[in-house]
Design goal:
Layout: E1 4-12, H1 19-23, H2 27-44, E2 57-65, H3 71-76, H4 79-85, E3 112-117, E4 124-132
Parallel strand pairs: 2-3
Antiparallel strand pairs: 1-4, 2-4
């Protein structure tokens, strides 16, 4: 693994959703979900949007929940969160610009996801974003 430096550690109040929960959502319901994640990330940043995105990044995500998901649901459920982290674009104007993009060109490895136990109702997500050389 290439050398990396921790740039952000975000503590978010909800566990990332399951891919099954989001894949059949109406467009407006999904937009509301994504806006909620955007608001949580912005609050974790203290309301300050980054000046410049991290060009090459690595993500580590801890998902705290009463139950664990199978891996395809865990990774698929990251989409609304990742959409908030990337730089704003014509396709995604709601991005906050913490990372340049979530494609392999800018994020060489898939996010590392850990599913950890929490009491029912006490779930959350911790996101660590690293700059990669």
């Amino acid at each position: 693994m290439p050398p990396r430096e921790l740039i952000y550690e975000l503590h978010l109040p909800a566990a990332t959703p399951s891919n099954n929960a989001i894949k059949g959502m109406h467009f407006h319901a999904y937009k509301k979900l994504r806006n909620g994640w955007r608001a949580s990330v912005l609050a974790a940043l203290g309301g300050k949007v980054p000046v410049a995105a991290i060009t090459r990044s690595a993500l580590e995500i801890e998902r705290y929940c009463a139950g664990s998901l199978d891996w395809d649901n865990a990774y698929g459920g990251l989409k609304p969160l990742l959409d908030c982290l990337v730089a704003p674009s014509a396709r995604n104007p709601d991005g906050l610009g913490l990372i340049e993009d979530d494609s392999p060109r800018f994020m060489p490895d898939a996010p590392r996801v850990l599913q950890l136990p929490a009491k029912r109702g006490d779930g959350g997500t911790v996101v660590r974003i690293y700059a990669v050389d």
